[in-house]
Amino acid sequence: MYKSLIRPVLFKFDPEKVHYFTFDFLRKFCQIPGMPSVLRSRFSVNDKRLEREVFGLKFKNPVGLAAGFDKDAKLFKELSALGFGFIEVGTVTPKPQAGNEKKRLFRLKADAAIINRMGFNNEGVEAMVSRLKKNTNVLIGGNIGKNKLTPNAEAVKDYVFSFDKLFEYVDYFVVNVSSPNTPNLRELQDKEPLKNLLNTLQNRNREHTAPKPILLKIAPDLTEDQLLDIIEIVQETKIAGVIATNTTISREGLKSEAKNEMGGLSGKPLTKRSTEVIRFLSEKSNKSFPIIGVGGIHTAEDAIEKLEAGASLVQLYTGFIYEGPALIKAINKKILEKGL
């Protein structure tokens, strides 16, 4: 019903406006008594065989929602009713920021893709904390970044600030240095700046009696040599794992009119490359750390490929928008069918 009736209507309107409309609709729908239970019965797959223990956390199933969808942790409870095993909120920055000028979100329907140049628009970490304090049972990842006006030389302070504020309210952290939409952010993926950032966060982490898993989200545009550096950095800093991958700046093979818009590309054009990165990291590291696979998952088979390539968990974003919540259920059922 989603693809045949709902999506064609939604896709007639501006994608950013549709995003906020669907947020409001889902929130109000879930305020009706019994409706969250209806959603869970329709889309959730409850089976002990789907449970995963990864970097010390227990996931009820391995299908999560990627960062960028619920930037401000406004809808994590309602979204979890759609069958997700975990929700990643953010990217959040220390101070609120408006992000880049609109229009900044583009559908590439002919390519089943999206280009975004949102620019870490969010209400700031304090606002996020106020909402996460009300969480009771949703496994939450906190994706943290730096403010646009913070120079790279002071970026570590931004990450530490959000880390400290969120520590009690998220189950794991994601360090986002791979978005193409904040000027010069990807320079923090270079070996020395990245080691410094991760070591600083890990030192802060170890000050707590129960440290939280810290993951690194990487770009799909890294070379093999850079990916080997990532493996070395993960092993040296002893962070918990990697999320592969963020959006790409590549435009290879696109057919849509909006293909030349600036920003990060997500969706089907990323499927193959993100799986290649997962397989490379898994094989070259001898599976020494967990990987969350994200990028171009539009079918259950796409998710299976990423799990077989070495991912421990997967996340959806663009595929969720194009295929609807039935995709979550389809992936979990396919995992059970495959015995993964």
From TrEMBL:
Active-site residues annotated for this sequence: 179
Family: Belongs to the dihydroorotate dehydrogenase family. Type 2 subfamily.
Pfam family, one: DHO_dh
PANTHER family membership: DIHYDROOROTATE DEHYDROGENASE (QUINONE), MITOCHONDRIAL, DIHYDROOROTATE DEHYDROGENASE (QUINONE), MITOCHONDRIAL-RELATED
Stated name of the protein: Dihydroorotate dehydrogenase (quinone)
Binding residues for substrate: 71, 116-120, 176, 181, 246-247
Binding-site positions, FMN: 67-71, 91, 143, 176, 217, 245, 267, 296, 317-318
Reactions it catalyzes: (S)-dihydroorotate + a quinone = orotate + a quinol
Membrane topology: Peripheral membrane protein
The EC number(s) this enzyme carries: 1.3.5.2
Gene Ontology MF term list: dihydroorotate dehydrogenase (quinone) activity
Localization terms from the record: Cell membrane; Membrane
Domain of life of the source: Bacteria
UniProt keyword annotation of Acyltransferase present: no
Gene3D superfamilies: Aldolase class I
HAMAP family: DHO_dh_type2
Keywords: Cell membrane, Flavoprotein, FMN, Membrane, Oxidoreductase, Pyrimidine biosynthesis
Role, per record: Catalyzes the conversion of dihydroorotate to orotate with quinone as electron acceptor.
EC class name: oxidoreductase
Pathway: Pyrimidine metabolism; UMP biosynthesis via de novo pathway; orotate from (S)-dihydroorotate (quinone route): step 1/1
CDD domains assigned to the protein according to its UniProt record, in alphabetical order: DHOD_2_like
Principal subcellular localisation of the protein: membrane
Annotated cofactor note: Binds 1 FMN per subunit.
